[in-house]
## 1
Amino acid sequence: MALWRDGVLSERGAESLTGGSALVLPWVDALLADAGLAMRDLDAIAFGAGPGSFTGLRLACGIAQGLACGLDLPTLGVSTLAALAQASGEERVFACLDARMNEVYFAAYAAVGGVVTELHAPQVAPPNLVAPPAGDWVGCGDGFAAYGDALPRPARVRADVWPTAAAVAALAAPRLMRGEGGDAAQAMPLYVRDKVALTTAERLARGGLR
C-alpha cells in the first residue's frame, strides 16, 4: 500500500505466503496515521488493475471499491505492467510478468520524466511467441526469470523488478489531476487473459506438465 501526498510517497509492504489480504487495511490505517491524515482527507483510491493473478486482482479491486464507495471517492485502475515500468526507473521498458500456464503478460513503455507512455498494449502469449519491439529496450519483470532462454529478451534484462504500490500511486496522481478518476462501481480488473485453466492436452501442447 502507498500514500501519495503532494508529491511525497510513503509505502508499506511485505512478502506474504498467504497473499497479505489481512495486512492491507492495517497498512492503510498506519500510512494515514504516520501522515497525520484521516480517511476523510483522501481524494481518490488507486489500485493495481492487472494483468496478474485473478485472486490478487479481485482483491485489489474489491478493496479499492469498498474504500471508495464508503468515502464517496473516485477510483483509478493502473496497469501493473505500467507500474513495473515506472518502478524500474528505466526509459524504454519491455515489461514481462509470469502469467503461469506457460504464458507471460507483456507490454512496452517509454518512461521519461515520471510520465509512462504505453507503446505496445498488454498482451498474453506463450514465451516462445513473444519478442520485444525493435530498438534498445530493457527487459523488466519476473517473466524473464521464469522462462529463461525460452523467452526472447533484449540485450539488458532486470528480472528482479516488480510493480510496486508506490509506482501505482505515482502514475495515478497526475491522472486524478486531469480528472480521470471514475465511479467506484465501474472499477474493473484488467485480466488480459479470459481463460484461467487449461485441459491436460492443452498444457502438454504448450510444454507443460500434467
## 2
Amino acid sequence: MEKSLCEIRLRRGGPVALREIAGGETLLPPMEDEGFSEMISAMLDHSLYARESELDKGYFTLPDGSRAGVCGDFSRGIRAPEDVLSLCIRIARAVPGCAAALIPALMETSGALIVSPPGLGKTTLLRDAARLLSRAGQNVCLVDERGELAACAGGRPQLDVGPRTDVISGTEKALAMGLAVRSCAPDVLVTDEMGAPRDAAAAGEILRCGVRLVASCHGNTLNPDGLRRCVGALLWPGLLELGVLLGPNRGQIAEIRRYQST
C-alpha cells in the first residue's frame, strides 16, 4: 500500500481515505477530534505562525515535498489547528525516467507546457524532466514556489532534481523567474502550476531572453482557447513550441502537440 499510495484525505469527524495510484481507495475509521487537531499541530511543527503565508493560500508543504491542501475556516485565516476541517495530502514521489520520452524534443525546442487536470502527475513529470535535462549537461533552474518539486530542507533538495540544477523556493513564481535569469544564467527554467497573469508575463520574458521553459498548468486540452487566457497566450505566438497533455490515467501522456515557432 505504501508504495502505491498517492493521496490521503483527512476530514475532521469523517473517515480517513487512502487513494492508490491505480485508483483504488481504502477507508479507515475517523480520527477523534482531539487527535485530528494534535496531528495538524505536529505536521506544522507546532508553529502555525511560521506557516501562515502558506496556510493563507490554502496549503502547506511537508518536508518530503508532499503538499497538504487545507479546507477550513478562512474568515480570519488559519490560526489554530481547530480552524482546519480537512486535508488533502498529495504524496510526492519520484518516478525516474517518466519524462525520458520528452527530453529529445525539449533539447531542441523553446520548451513545453504540460497540461492536465489535478492529480495526474504534472509535478512528477516536471521533476524528472529537470533531473534528466540536468544530467544531459543543461544548467537548470527550478522555480519551486510551493516546495513540491525539490523539497529543500537544510539547504539541500530532498528529491533528486539533477546535479546541475539550482533551486529557488519560498517566493512568488513571477519574482523568482526574474531572479533566475539575472542570477543563475540557466539554459532551462522549470516551474509548476502556471495560472496567474503575472506568472505568464514572466514566462514570456523568460522565453524572449532565450531561456527554455518547461512549465505546467491545469486544463484538459492543448487548444490555447481552452486554457486560461494568459497561459494560452504562450502557445498562440509560438513562444512555447510543445504542448503535452496528460491523461486519462495518472502519468500517461495522451498527446504531444508541436506549435509553430516565431
## 3
Amino acid sequence: MAFYHWLNTYRDKDPAKADWIARRLLALRLALRDSALGRRAPGNLVIGSWNIRAFDDGRPRRDESFHYIAEIIDHFDICAVQEIKDDLAPLRKLVDLLGPNWDYFVTDVTEGGPGNRERQAFLYNTNKVRFRNLVGELTLPREALIDGEQIARTPFFASFQAGWFRFTLMSVHIVYGGSSAADKARRAAEIAALAERAAERAQKEREVYVLIGDMNIEKVGDSIMQSLTDHGLTAPFFGPTNLGGTRFYDQIAFTGEAVRTNLVQSGSFDWRSAVYRAEDKAHYRPLAEAARGAEYANWDTSYEAHFASFEMSDHLPIWVEIRTDYSDAYLTRFLTDV
C-alpha cells in the first residue's frame, strides 16, 4: 500500500495542503476501486506501463502529484515507466512513497538527439513479483540496423516471476517526431525489429516476452501497429492513451499462448476524474502563474495540455491482469484416465 506518512509533515506546516491532498487521494482511491482494476483477483498479476511526462526535466512536480502517481502505480504489481530524465531524485521520491516492499531498476540515459536523454525503469512490488537476476539493454546486430542506426531509445529488459508465470519485460519508447511516410516507416521498423527479437527469444528460451511501453502508434490497424503483430505478438485493445483521446500510443504485447490463454482483463486508467480535474482549474491558476508566469497566460487551453500533463502525464497508464496459478492444469497432466 502506498505510504501517506508525508501528510503529517504537510499538516504541521500547512493544514490546507494536507486536506487538499488527502481529499484527492480518497477520490482517486474510489475511482480506482470503481474501475476494472478494482475487480482484479488477489492472486493474479497486474502488469502496468506508464509514460510519465518528462519525469522530471526542469519542471519539478508538486508534492501532491507524487502521491497521485504512487497511488496509481501501487495498484499494479509491476510497472514499466518511460521518459525518466537525468535526475533520479524524483524516481527515488516516488519509490519511497510506494513503500519498502517496492524496488526498481533504471537504465542510464540514452544519448543523442532522438534518445532525448531519457531513462526507462521497472518498479515492482517484491511481495508479488520476484526478480530473476537477468537484466540488460537490447542492441541490434549490424545486419539488422535501421538505416545504419540502433534503436533511438535503447530498449531495456529484465526477467521476473509471479507464481507459476515466468516472463521477461522489454520496455520501449519508440522514436517520435514528424508525420511523413519516412517518419512513420522508422517507427514501424523499430517496432518490427523489437517484435521479431522478442518472438525469437521467447521461442528459444521457452518463456513469455512482454513488449511494453510507449510505441507511438497513432491508429489501430496502421502500418506501425501492424509491425507489432506481424511477428505473432498479441496486443489487447487499450483504447486511446493520449489525453486528447485520439492516439493509441501505449501498448502491452506478448508472445505465445501462456498469456493469451490466461489474460483476464486489460485497460487504461483516466485519473482526470479524481485529480487535476477540470473543476480544479481555478484552484491551480494562481499557483501555476506564480511558478511559471507567462507560460500559462492562456489558462483555459494550457491547464490540461501543459500544467496538468506536466504534473501527471500526457499519457494514461495501461495495464493487463494475468492468471499466474497453473497448478490445476499441471496436476491434470499426471492423471492416467484423462
## 4
Amino acid sequence: MKRFDTLAEMGHEEVVVCSDPSVGYRGILAVHSTKLGPALGGTRFWQYASDEEAITDALRLSRGMTYKNAVAGLHLGGGKSIIIGDNKTKDRERIFRAHGRFVESLGGRYITAEDVGTSTKDMDYVHMETSHVAGLAGKSGDPSPVTAHGVFRAVQASANRRWGSDSLEGKTVTIQGCGSVGTYLAKELHEAGAKLIVSDIDSAKAARVSKMTGAKIVEGDVIYSLDADIFSPCALGGIINDSTIPRLKVQIVAGGANNQLLEERHGDELQRRGILYAPDYVANAGGVINVYGEVAGWDAQRALDKADDIYDTVLKVFDIAESQHIPTYEAADRLAEQRLAEA
C-alpha cells in the first residue's frame, strides 16, 4: 500500500515493472503525466544496489521530466524508463528489443530516447520493436551537444544575474563529470574564456577534456572544496547534500546533471548561503528539446535555437524567486505547475 501512496503523492499515472528472463531484461517504465502530450523521457541503463532504489529513481526522474518539458514549453508529458543491469554488456540487441516491446505495449503514451548508459545505436534496436522512440542515429542523434549548449546558456544567465554580465572571461568553473555533456560544455566554456577544473571517476575522460581545453584535473571529492566562481555538476544526481554544501566556495551552481539536490531542503540551504542555483531541469532541458525536435520534424538548427531560450527561462525563474521570496528550485516548480494548470 505504501507504494500506491507514493504514486499518488508524486502524481504518477502509471508505472510498469517489466521482465523478460530469456534475455536477462529487467525494466521499469514510469509515466508521470500525459497532460501536455505523450510522456517523453530517456532510458537509463544502470546497475542499482536494489530494485527499490531503481524504482525510486524512475519515479523521481519521470516526475522531473514532466516539469522539465513543461518549463521548456514543449507539448510533452513526462516519463522515464530504467533497465537494471550492467550497461557495459555486449549483448545489447536482445535487451533493447525486449525494452522496445514493453515501450510499444504502452501504445504511444510513452516515447523513449537515450539517457545514461544508452546510445543512439541502442535506440535503433528499440526502434525495431516500436515507433515510439526518438534520438535515432541519422535523425536528431546524440542530444549531448544541445544539452550542453542549454547548460552553457543557463550559466550565462546565472552570471548575468550574479555579476551583471554574460561574460565568463576569467571566471573559474569546476565541472564534475566529463561525459558527453560535460565535454561539450567544457568546450563552450573554454571558448568563452573560462578557466576550467574538472573531475571524473574515469581518468581517461578527464584527461581528454584537459587536453582539449587546458583544464586542471582533480580527483574525487576535491572538486567540492575548490575556490571557484561556478560549480557545474554534470554527473549523476544527489550531489548537493549535507556533506557537499558546506564545502562549496562558489557563487553559482549550474550544471547538466539531473536531480542535483538530494532533498529539496538543500535548495533552501544554497539560498541561505547566498549561492545562486540554476534549477537542473531548467538548465539541462536542451536534450529533451533536441529529442522533441525530432518528434516535431525540426531541423538541427531550430533545436539549437530553442535551447537558446533556456537563457530567458532561467532569468524568468530567478525573477519569480526574487518577487515571491522563494528558492529558485521552488520558483521553477511554480513555473511548470502554472503551465500544467493552464493545460
